[in-house]
Amino acid sequence: MKKLKLLLFACTAASSVSGQSSLPVYLDNTKPIEQRIEDALSRMTLEEKVAMCHAQSKFSSAGVARLGIPENWMSDGPHGVRPEVLWDEWNQAGWTNDSCIAFPALTCLAATWNPEMAARYGKAIGEEARYRNKNVLLGPGVNIYRTPLNGRNFEYMGEDPFLASQIVVPYVRGVQSNGVAACVKHFALNNQEAYRHEVNVEVSDRALHEIYLPAFKAAVTEGKAWAIMGAYNKYKGQHACHNQYLLVDVLRKMWHFDGVAVSDWGGVHDTREAIYNGLDMEFGSWTNGLTWGESNAYASYFLATPYLKLLKEGKASEKELDAKVRNILRLAFRTTMNANRPFGSFGTPEHALIGRQVAQEGIVLLKNSPATPKKEDFVLPIDFSKAKKIAVIGENAIKVMTVGGGSSSLKAKYEISPLEGIKKYAGNRAEVVFARGYVNDFLSKEGGMKHDGMVINDVVDTRPAEEITAEAVAAAKNADVVIFIGGLNKYDGQDCEGGDRKGLELPYGQDKVIAALAKANKNLAVVIISGNAVAMPWVNDAPAVVQAWYNGSEAGNALAAILTGEANPSGKLPFSFPVELKNNGAHALGQYPGDSAPAGYLNEKYSEDIFVGYRWLDKQKIKPLFPFGHGLSYTNFEYKNLKITDNGETVSVNFDLTNTGKREGSEASQVYVALPEMKIAMPVKQLKGFAKTRLSAGETRTVEIAIPKSQLSYWDESKNNFVTPTGTFEFLAGASSADLRLKGKLKF
Ligand code: BGC
Hints:
The chain is an alpha/beta fold. The chain contains 20 helices and 28 strands. Strands 1-2-3-4-6-9 form a 6-stranded mixed β-sheet. The chain has a 6-stranded mixed β-sheet with strand order 10-17-16-15-11-12, with helices on both faces. Helix 2 (33-42) packs across helix 12 (318-334) and helix 6 packs parallel to helix 8 (214-221). The chain is globular, with a radius of gyration of 27 Å. It starts with a helix and ends with a strand. The relative contact order is 0.11.
């Protein structure tokens, strides 16, 4: 008791002798952050400042223990919070309390066309990160989908800068509402994995600003992202992690970014460039840091001892260092030193539910035609009054998909496979049989997928391919409905960091299997699980095709809900599916993966310029396999009565949307704009607005989409800025980039 009294006295004395707080300014939560930063900075030694600018372990950097400024702890990102790894190594630490909820991949999130879903996703993943004491989540990724071969497309938000911008902003805000920084990556022009450390991208300023930068810009200027990660590749001959134009001229000067710029892991190559070209924190320069000896220790990082030496010798001034430390301190005050940040939560059913909602809204029904000449004979949704036996065929029906793919690999608390989901949904309404259909080379060679020494996908099958396929065909013949579940996976050379796909085709002979199944049973639905477009030579023989992404913990439940019609599909493609690779601009022009010019220097010209994705298909008048923005529903929507109004700063596009079918459903309506004709080349049309509307059967609603005129602009290279032209603009509204039902014009 006596002790307590004394303590109370001491506290009162410290805080109010003269009625004023005796807390140092930097610790005083009531003071503005900028004041706190200056105060903290003034108390720090040169060594303490430099220590903050580089990693101290695989995923952390130093704080200032003496001043009570905590360390920074980062984690991938972007689909769930990665398991703990060893201090100096990529290997898992073997904790037993770090199994997360795996959320759907960002391609799926973009396919929801629903910013509200992005807000929930961001808030939930931020809660998971916060609970795990991470103050920086390494995601989301917004590199534009330039080629369907890019191994990391599944971690990004598709081919259109406007769609990606609309989805990234709520994600960032959601994460940061937890006092956790979102670290938007990879800034910029990291559009392929092949030669990712060497490739030097050559792109026009116009394509850079109109196509490759807008999502980053939105994340920074609207989402107010607190962190950004540089990319591995080069631009203007300089690595993106210390690139004068990207990090200084664009990020800081044009967009007024006040957060931290961190390097990608191993993306720093030069001390001087790192000092002067806008990088704040260096990570991952050497893997297995200390285990490789002192010369590879964190102290040898480009921004560690070599930097300190330059400073001490007077060869670098403290000005740049202070600028970096200010940014890092700002991060601390926004995150670890924000006394009001919430506590977070981890692996909860609420988070799983959000993942499931996103998955259900993002799965895309690509095709759904009657399986017989009878108009009503649809394969999907599965009609249990007729389907008493369902054959599920394909490796992706049983394969773990939350593991693999590189840095976004997760240790999920659980993962419902498609087969489990379908069995659960069928219950006692139908018998579900499974046959493998095909086996991927990797499994047959390696005997199971290993992750940190543990076999995760114990689904080895060493029988000859013919036998495996014959078994599936027999199962298909004997079933009322056949659901093939294949696609890509997260092994090297598929949807995986560090390498690209070799072609557009499905791997492991799946095309042949699907063709054989189509012959065996006309009631066939093909489900593709991938983060990329694939070729579908069998598309005319499969009455139903579903694009199902990597959907995380709840993948199987979400897919089964869609296949059985419990949920009505409403996802739409965030990128085009070309028929063949040469229908893609980068490939048509032979500009992938870059030419090997002078030794060690790989140049890649983005000659297709602004004509990426549907912009290229429109320009070349090429019909895609499935267009950008495409996605069907189990109901139908009608578009009528377009009204376009000039409201000064904005244009408002209104139309009546009616659900003409028999069940409730949601439609992602899209507005594309054709800018007035000009001397410079213009896309035929560009996405400038969208809205997702839920309608019950028979219901009509007026959809209103407001488009700021500033959005109706192009990058004028002579002005180094966006310019809104004057003239006649055409507005096209409808269901996809190739299904525009209403057209109107406005002159301003
Ligand atoms: C990836 C980043 C990731 C980092 C840390 C790098 O290889 O490119 O996206 O955040 O590793 O795991």
